[in-house]
Amino acid sequence: MRLRKLIAGCLTLSLMSVALVGCGSKNNTSDDTLSNETTEKTETAEAEKVSLTVWGPQEDQAAIGDYKDGILKAMCDKFNEAHPEWDITFEYGVCSEGDAKDVVTKDVAAAADVYMFANDQIPILEQSGALAELGGKTVENIEANNEESIINSVKYKDGYYGVPFTSNTWFMYYDKSKFDENEVKSLDTMMAKDLGDGVTNFAFPLDNSWYISSFYYAAGGTLFGDGTDASKGCTFDDDNCKAMTSYLVDLAANPKFSCEKEGSSIGKFKEGTLGAYCSGSWDADPIKKALGDNFACTNIPTVTVNGKEGQMKSFVGSKAIGVNPNCKNPQVAVALADYLGGQECQQIRFDTRQIIPTNTTVAQSAAVLSNEVAQAQTAEISNASMVQPLLQEMNSYWTPAETMGKEIVQGDVTKENAAEKTELMTKGILQSN
């Protein structure tokens, strides 16, 4: 622990004295100063030789467009060129963001110096000594270039542990030949519409705990306060949330509803037998192909329970770049993480892989503004989301919530026992408290 604190302190001090390369800030005074200082340094001293190991997903290392060796290598090469004070040799490894906590924690000392991860893994990675707290210019860049929800997604124990480069949430796709843009604002309106025999109005992965919480948020329930205070507990067992469970019992039994199973909704879109479906940007391409000119997407709808209309809210997180506190060159590693999560690299990811940016400047570019999926995800984050709690107590949420969804779908939860089942779910969520 002492070593990790020492390294975090060194990172902060280093970054206070050295301006990191921030994409798109070439006209910034601090960058001009850095450029002059760098020129003077390289005239009097040889570049410092540095070795860095970088891990990223396979998709970033595969040939795409003009990037024959993948975008990760190209981005790292650009960083190296921008820093003549360092002569960096890169080694690359394949590790997806979702697998980071399992792969990195197997042998933290031997893991990559810089790697990508999903933000909900921060508590495990930090406690395993695998994730350095960031400081200085890097934190300034995070706070200056992202929306509040994205900023909070990498904040843990009042510190920052990653540079976010894309958001991670879900929203709603719909067939605009079946619903117009006003009808999709309310789930009750959507479910009341007659779309004809054999047509499902709304598909939703109700048995998935990452999704079902959206309904209890719509009922006014809270999960650890704003998601940062475990002492606030969970209010998913209040009267409105109990009524929401009863609502979900009716929804699951409605022939116009289906619980999404392994991409079945995409096939229904293609057949013309589905009105709307909730998922994330990863399903955009196949849904576009399935719906063609009828493709549309937006943030998730409202739901009315006990006479009160409430906005459904999805969990929102991010994918981020992190630094291993065991790295031999922390100053260079943090600078690279800041660059890989910055404006220029987010633009490259969007242009090549349609990875939706969090950087507010890239998000306002013409290409992103004209992209329906990017705009739907942006609207979701702004209007209909809650930051997924980064607390140890959150570990107790997933199984009870999943169980509730599965039991609703298979008919074990009824209107008669809905209140009791809701209390049981909430008790399970709070077991670690």
Multimer state: single chain
Give the number of domains. 2
Q: If you consult CATH, what is the topology of the largest domain?
A: D-Maltodextrin-Binding Protein, domain 2
Share of helix, binned: 40-55%
CATH architecture of the largest domain: 3-Layer(aba) Sandwich
Give the CATH H-level superfamily of the largest domain. Answer: Periplasmic binding protein-like II
Total strands: the figure is 15
CATH top level class name of the largest domain:
Alpha Beta
What summary fits the major beta sheet?
6 strands, mixed
Structural class of the secondary structure composition?
Answer: alpha/beta
Number of helices: 19
GO molecular function, one term: maltose binding
Signal peptide: 1-21
Pfam families: SBP_bac_8
Family: Belongs to the bacterial solute-binding protein 1 family.
